[in-house]
Amino acid sequence: MRVLLTGHQGYLGTVMAPVLAGAGHEVRGLDSGLFADCVLGPRPADPPTHAVDLRDVPPELLAGFDAVVHLAALSNDPLGSLAPELTYDINHHASVRLARVARDAGVRRFLYASTCSVYGASGGDDLVGEDAPLRPVTPYAESKVRVEDDVAALADDDFTPVFMRNATAFGFSPRLRADIVLNNLVGHAFLAGEVRVLSDGTPWRPLVHAQDIAAAFAQALAAPREAVHNQAFNIGTEENNVTVAEIAAQVVEAVPGSVLRITGETGADPRSYRVDFSRVRAALPGFTARWTVKDGANELVRAYRTYSLSRHDFDRMFTRLARLSDRRAVGSLDETLRP
Ligand SMILES: NC(=O)c1ccc[n+]([C@@H]2O[C@H](COP(=O)([O-])OP(=O)(O)OC[C@H]3O[C@@H](n4cnc5c(N)ncnc54)[C@H](O)[C@@H]3O)[C@@H](O)[C@H]2O)c1
After folding, report:
1. What is the CATH architecture of 2-329?
2. Contact 33 CB / ligand 1 (< 6 Å)
3. I want to staple 207 with a disulfide (CB 3.0 to 4.6 A). Which of 16, 171, 240, 312 is the partner?
4. Ligand 1 centre from 62 Cα, in Å?
C-alpha cells in the first residue's frame, strides 16, 4: 500500500516508519519537524517527507494514498495543559479535517493513534475494555476522545477508520522522549542515581514498547476490513499493567546503585486505569506485545550509556514541553507552533 505516515519524525513515528516499510508498504511522511533534530545516537533515515503543518495540509496531498497512519499530535498531558486551544486545533480539528480529506481522496484505511488515557479517572482495579466509559481528565485526552467520535462518523463502505488506543509507550527510539514514565525514571536513575516518584506511586499505568505499537499498526493495516472497521483497540498487554511504584522498582534493578524515593509531593494522581487487551489479540491474531518493562528498562540503560546521554539533552532536548518552549524563545517556532 501507499501509506502516508503523519508524525513520522516523532518518538513513535521514527520507530514505525521502518517497520511499515519492512512490511512492504511505500511510506511517505508528513511532519512539521517540531522534534526532527532531537536525536540520540545516529540520525535515522526518514522516508520522503512532506514538511507541512497538519493544520495546513492541502487536500491534493492525499491523492493516491491507500492508507493514512495518523500519529502527528501535541502528544502529552503537560503540553495539552500549557496550550489547550492549540491542542484542540492540532489534535482535534486538524485531525478530523485530515480524515475527511483522506476519505474524499479515496483513502480506504485510516489508523488513528489514540491513547488509553481516554479512560482517565477510571480508578479501581477492574480491567477496562474498549466499551468502558471514557473519563478523560486532561485537554490532551479529551482531544483524543473528540477525534474518535468525529472520525467514527465518517466511516462508510469505502473508508475504514481504526482507533488504536495505545498504552503509555516506553523504550528506545532514535528520537527519544524523556517525558514518558519509564524513559523518564531510567534517565533520572542513570544521570542522578535516584528514581524519584512524585506521586504516591499507586496509580495504574499500562505500558507498551514503541516497537510493539509499530507491530500492532502494521497488523492493523494488513487486517481484513471486517476485523477492524470503525473499531477501537487497546494496544498493549495485561502483563504490563503496572503501578508507578512497580515501574520504579524495575528501574532501580536496571540501574545498579540507584535508590528509590517516593516523595508523594504531587499527591494522588487521578489518572489511573488497568486495561484489558483481549480485543486486539482476537482481531489481529499475529499481534502480541513482546516487550516487558524490565527488558525495556535494560534497553534504555544500554542506549543512554552507549550514546552518552547528557543531563542537558535529557531535560531540554528530549522533554517535549521544554523543547517547544526553547524553540519559541529563540523564534524558530511562532506562537502557534509553526516553524
Ligand atoms: N508516546 C506515548 O506514550 C503515546 C501513547 C499513546 C498515544 N500516543 C500518540 O501517538 C502519537 C505519536 O506520539 P509520539 O510519542 O511519537 O509523539 P511525539 O511528540 O514524539 O511526535 C509527534 C510528532 O507529530 C509532529 N507534529 C505535532 N504537531 C504537528 C503539526 N501541527 N503538524 C505536523 N506535525 C506535527 C511532531 O513534529 C512530532 O514529530 C500521538 O498522537 C500520541 O498522542 C503516544
Report:
1. 3-Layer(aba) Sandwich (3.40)
2. yes
3. 240
4. 20
